[in-house]
Design brief:
The complex is a heterodimer.
Chain A: E1 10-23, E2 26-39, E3 43-47, H1 54-61, E4 71-80, E5 84-87, H2 93-99, E6 104-107, H3 111-114, H4 121-133, H5 137-150, H6 156-159, H7 169-181, E7 187-191, H8 199-216, E8 219-224, H9 227-233, E9 236-241, E10 244-250, H10 251-256, H11 261-268, H12 271-275, H13 311-315, E11 321-322, E12 330-331, H14 336-339, H15 352-360
Chain B: E1 11-24, E2 34-47, E3 51-55, H1 62-69, E4 77-82, E5 85-86, H2 92-99, E6 102-105, H3 119-130, H4 135-148, H5 165-177, E7 183-187, H6 195-211, E8 215-220, H7 223-229, E9 232-237, E10 240-246, H8 247-252, H9 257-265, E11 315-316, E12 324-325
Parallel strand pairs in B: 3-8, 3-9, 6-7, 7-8
Antiparallel strand pairs in B: 1-2, 1-4, 4-5, 9-10, 10-12, 11-12
The chains are: A alpha/beta, B alpha/beta.
Chain lengths: ~350, ~325
Amino acid sequence: MKEELKQRPVVLEARNLSVAFRDGKRAVEVVSNISFTVGQGETAALVGESGSGKSVTSLSILRLVERSGGVVSGNLFFHSPKHGAVDLLRQSEATMRSIRGNEIAMIFQEPMTSLNPVLSVGYQVSEALRVHKRVAPSEAKREALELLNRVRIPDPKRRFDDYPRQFSGGMRQRVMIAMALACRPKLLIADEPTTALDVTTQAGILDLIRGLQEEMNMSVLFISHDLGVVSEIADRVLVMYSGKIVENAPIRSVFFAPAHPYTSGLLHSMPATAASFGKGVPLRAIPGSVPPPGTALEGCAFASRCEFSTAACETASPRLERRVPGSSSESACHRAAELNGALASSLPWADADGAASVRTA
Amino acid sequence: MTRRPEAPAPEWIRALDLSKSYPVGGGLFRKPRKVVRALRNVSLALRKGETTGLVGESGSGKSTFGRSLLRLTEPDSGQVFFEGENILAFSPREMKRLRRRFQVIFQDPFASLSPRMTVRDILCEPLDIHNIGGRDERTDHAAELLETVGLRAEHLRRYPHEFSGGQRQRIGIARALMPNPEFLLADEAVSALDVSLQAQIVNLLAEMRRRFSLTMLFITHDLSLVEYLCDRVAVMYAGTIVETAPADELRRSPMHPYTQALLSAIPRIDPRRKTARLIMKEEGDSTGEAAEGCVFAGRCPCVRKECFSESPSLRRVGDASEHMVACRCVS
């Protein structure tokens, strides 16, 4: 596993990124002041439940939230091969157009709604090449066929002129991936790319993304609500809760030594975790529900649902920082250092062996 | 866990050779181009007090099967025996009486509750329909059940839009429990919920099942939920049941190649227990007419020649075992 994250050159850096939407007269902040980086060739996963702000974060990178009334602040530094180091939030629409789909590409959850139903699949895959690379139509077709072959669509020559409705869900997602990779982007944003798919299809798509990512040394920002999927694909995990990143850690640490009670809660509430304890043992659910966006909170947003919260948690908002000695995890929990160990102790796979392997990594 | 009796419970509901086809393609004035066989001679017995999990991917026919048991979908052929009678031959009146004992929880808590009814009206509707109790009695019962599922009595006056997804699913569960049913069909009842809420609702379902001694058919695409919640599992593929077994046995030793592929495709968290994935061929004609042979033959990693000509029936593995598989390659 790739753990030497610090040496990677940074491709994307979000610094104090906030996104707010207007609700009547009130501004509702759905992403508040988050900072993270994605390294070259790294797969960083943004994990959280619905309403945590993970999709808005990804859309703000491509500057797609302003159109729907979002107000974005902070910095989003991107290492663009063409424009050099730029702050995406301060680029003109023309520059953004040359970055979108070219240097930063995105795939979405529902492939059917993201593909144009009245254009053939071949046309849509070669479109990016014609627009960004200005290649001749015959050349674009040749490259598009190669891409379709690469995402393992059987018999691409025959399927080139087919329409999206003639493809199954998994095959459509493969088409989407082919489109996204047409210009060999530096960064791929994948927003729940397998959520609408069956498990067996999902397994194939994850294998595909992983393979292509390694082959092209591309960075991936993978957005998901499913920690199982994330465990298969990510190098590093950013856990979001209520618009904030509450934990930022290498993949093994997240599962063997979670440093935030919310991460630990998510791991414990998975039925797969409970099944290994035996039947009839109730799932350790997180009580309550996610606070609606815009809830004004003084302390930690998770405090009201947290079994470890103290009076201090209700008043002071914890910052995301290294809190556990000897660990590379960053946690936004006041009690992270003293809880270390307690958060993982009841996970079925977290024995001494596993925890030790995190520390040495 | 003591819920499972020593001797297997007697069969309570038995579906025999249920079939259902839907025409697809075509248009308003055009003939349908082909027929999707959502159920192909499906037989399955549910035992009293047990929870049976029905798993399969989208389009495998699991919802059609569940709905057929309650005649929410009329099967084309087959029989459903309940207490010795074929309910598919029931008159609408007899059916109505039966539906009081058979209730459903649906997947989408946003679509399954009427936005124009208060929670009280939603909960009391089943009792109004079946004419059970007086008005005050109904309201009292509703208030009581609302607290049982973790909401509060004062929520009775509210409307569904005032609740979050998890709370709505609690209302859906309370509604299903109102007429005091014996059988509960949960059709992807927790699939639309976030992980942390899903766990709450799964716990609630498990508790309600125990408290009201329910027999359940739990339809889901999520195998880890089945492992956790069910006594027995049936795996569906392309309108047929390919394997049934006690839940823990299915996880330990899946026999059918499709079940094996399905189990190996679940993302498992434990990074040290990674097993090699069994990759199926994609794009089999899973729902089309392929009338002959095994439905899985086109994608099967260990397919033989005869699989394309003869369709396998569900056979017992070993003599006394409760494990049944429909595959030629399993002896």
